[in-house]
Amino acid sequence: MPEPLRDLSDPALNAAVAGNLRALFASIARSAAADAGPARLGVRWSTPVAHPWFRGVWSDGAPPDDADTEVAAMVEAFRGDGVASFTWWLSPDVDRRPWARLLARHGFRHEPGPPGMGMD
Question: Residue 59: is it exposed, middle or buried by C-beta count within 10 angstroms (0-12/13-18/19+)?
Answer without folding.
Answer: buried
